[in-house]
Amino acid sequence: MKQAQLEAFIDQLAAAEHDAACQIEQAEAESNARLHTLRQRLEAERQGALKELEAVLAAEEQQHEAVLQQQLQCMEKETEAQIDEMRRRHEEIRDALVRWAVKDITQP
Question: Is 108 helix (H, G, I), strand (E, B) or coil?
Fold first, then answer.
C-alpha cells in the first residue's frame, strides 16, 4: 500500500510540477506581451514628442527668419537713407565748389 501511495504522491508532484511549468510559461508570455505593448506605447509617445518638438522648432525658425527679414529691410532703408543724405551733401558741396570756381574765374 505504501508503494501505491508513494507512486500516487510522485504522480501528484509530477502533475504539480507540470502545472507550475505551464503557469510560469504563461506568465512569461503575458509578461513579454505587456513589455511589447509598453515598448510600442513608449515609442509612439517618443515619436509624438519628437514631432511636437520639430513643429516647435520649425515655428521658431520661421519667427526668427521673419525677424531677420524685418531687420534686413530696416537696415536697407537706413542704408538707402544714408546714401541719399551723402548724395545730397555731395551735390551741395559740388554746387558750392562750382559757384566758387565760377566766382573765382569770373572775378578778376
Answer: coil
